[in-house]
Amino acid sequence: MTTAQTPRPTLVNVGHYENFPVASIFLPRHLRRPIQAIYAFARAADDIADEGDAPAESRLAELAAFHEQLRRLERGEPATAPLFVGLGEAIRRHDLPYSLFHDLLDAFAQDCSKTRYADFGEVMGYCRKSANPIGRLLLKLYHADTPRHQAYSDGICSALQIINFLQDVAVDWKKNRIYFPQDEMARHGISERQIAEGRTDGLWQIFMREQIERARKLLAAGAPLGRILKGRIGFEMRLIVLGGERILYKLHRSHGDMFHQRPTLDLSDWLYMLWRALIKK
User: Fold this and answer.
1) What is the C-alpha to C-alpha distance for residues 42 and 40, in angstroms, rounded to an integer?
2) Distance of alpha carbon 77 from alpha carbon 63, whole angstroms
């Protein structure tokens, strides 16, 4: 998916995760390299699923090769691809679960084969593999991966994935993907033709208000994690949540017209977010 050209304290940027300040200057220095390795892996796999004109079969084969590289690391064998050398070091040093990396690859493979989602349960099933593993990996790096913290993190990560879907409705349509629940579209009389034409008439605004409000509640459910985690890590988490909140605010203000007003974070947003994150509110 496309990424916003906006100022951000970021060293690495990954399409699906563009609302995360990744490997931020605010994080402890010793965590930046493993986080960069995780995001480089996710970026490369995401590009396989999203970029270029290769057929689905070729993309799936490349992702299967990524799975095999992970299995080599699991067996204690050396990586044969440069990308996995740094990743393997991060996994070994921080005891990161291989299953979470396999989940990410499964999500990218799903993008190659599944283009519609029957209901919100299916959307959340995708989020469980496409976004939640990132948060859980970060918690592992922070030595804060308790079940309670994982539940908060899953709420934040799933919300951010859904927010990204809302931002990129037009972008995803060009790739023949719709992440809106099909049953909810039908209930509001939203057709694929309406998305293709970028129209916000009919019940579109009501439909979008419901999508925005659900994402907001999901984000709010995980927000306590930013106050629970201490120091720079908590500060970073609060920035992440605030970034999601700002995008949702802009979506609401535009009445869900992401076709002509795709929401991004600008300098004024970042200044507001930094202030809010500092005062812990």
Assistant:
1) 5
2) 19
The sign of the dihedral angle between the CA atoms of 37, 39, 40, 41 is positive
- pTM comes to 0.89
Q: What is the pLDDT of residues 246-279, one digit of tens each?
A: 999 999 999 999 999 999 999 999 999 999 998 8
C-alpha span between 95 and 233 (Å, rounded): 19
Contact (Cβ atoms closer than 8 angstroms) between residue 255 and residue 208: yes
Tokens found for residue 8: 């951000």
Residue 117, helix vs strand vs coil? strand
Which superfamily, per CATH, for 15-279? Farnesyl Diphosphate Synthase (1.10.600.10)
The Cα–Cα gap between 55 and 149 comes to 39
| Lookup result for tokens 């906006």 | 6
Q: How far apart are CA 229 and CA 48, in angstroms?
A: 34
Q: What is the pLDDT of residue 14?
A: 40
Domain locations in the chain as residue ranges: 15-279
The position carrying tokens 């064998």 is: 77
189 burial level (CB within 10 Å; 0-12, 13-18, 19+)? exposed
Q: Are 43 and 27 in contact (CB under 8 A)?
A: no
